[in-house]
Amino acid sequence: MQPNLFSRQPPSFRSFVIAVITCLALLFINWRIPHVIKPARDVIYAAYNPIYALASYPVLSREWLNQQTKSETQLRRENTAMQAELLQAQVRLQKLSELSAENTRLRGLLDTPLIIDGRMEIAEVIGTDADPLRHIIIINRGETNQIKVGQTVLDDKGIMGQVIDVYPHSSRVMLLSDKEHSLSVRLERTGMRAIVSGTGDLGRLKMEYVPTSANVKIGDKVYSSGLGEHFPAGYLVGTVSQVRRHNSGEFSEIDVTPAAQLASGHHVVVLFSESLAMEQPYADR
User: pLDDT tens digits for 162-199?
Assistant: First the structure.
């Protein structure tokens, strides 16, 4: 009679062998015919769900208690931090808006039909003259950028002024509206020549020495004439905004609204060309 090997082994080992054989059998059945095992597996998972929920309850309870027991100081600190982040985001948004507007202004300068032959230097307005009675701005281009006294400064709308002093890294520009500034101009509609001077008002220039009989109308475009070789010819100066004729006077009082943004210009263009009197970009008008 053959000896029974299992009867000689401890019960714990016998149970282990039976469990291993059972597991292998279940794995084989799950591999070969999974649809047979699936219902039983689903039932076991459903039975384990309450156990999983109960096991996770201490962790969830601790998080809930931590949220409920936060001190007023912590809440204030978090609120302050969130307000600081919101402020930073708003500041960045403002900067993005300013950069977008600045990009638009620069594109306007580059695309303006006033610039010819590409002879220009884009500069930034970095200050104004200390004398409040003078209309003088300071730009961030100077001798190192080959800027010279007398060069014309304009924006994408028209002439702004002229360089009067040059330093190594900056220059001073007298605006058209300065009381000491004058330039020779020509009316687009009639070709009549005149002198336009500053009034001390950024939004108003005056046309001088125009006879009362002269054919000048509100809305007439005024361009630089190129005479005197201080400004190149054919660049927009402004538009006639008011004409006053007096029977007792020899000359009319004519106001001109400057085309350039004298009060709010941030970027400007410095022309490197010589006097363009011979080129006359608007001579055929």
Answer: 999 999 999 999 999 999 999 999 898 888 999 999 99
Q: Which residue has the tokens 């000689």?
A: 8
Six-digit token pair at 99? 């950069």
157: its two tokens: 């709308």
At position 25, the amino acid (one-letter code) is: A
Contact 170, 140 (CB under 8 A): yes
**Residues 188 and 227: beta-carbon distance below 8 Å:** no
Structure tokens at 200: 């001390």
Measured between alpha carbons, how far is 142 from 18 in angstroms, rounded to an integer? 96
* More confident of the two residues 69 and 227: 227
Residue 228 DSSP one-character state: G
Which pLDDT does position 235 carry in this prediction?
Answer: 85
User: Hey, what are 77's tokens?
Assistant: 């600190």
The answer, yes or no, to whether residue 75 has pLDDT greater than 50, is: yes
* Residue 274 · residue 117 · CB < 8 Å: no
Q: What is the pLDDT of residue 163?
A: 95
Distance CA 166, CA 138 (A): 10
Classify residue 189 as exposed, middle or buried by CB count within 10 Å of its CB (0-12, 13-18, 19+).
middle
DSSP per-residue string spanning 237-249: EEEEEEEE--TT-
C-beta of residue 163 within 8 angstroms of C-beta of residue 172:
yes
190: its two tokens: 């009639």
- Phi then psi for residue 203, to 5 deg, are -105, 10
255 phi/psi in degrees, rounded to 5 = -100, 140
Q: What angle do CA 9, 10, 16 make, to 5 degrees?
A: 95
**pTM for the full model?**
0.59
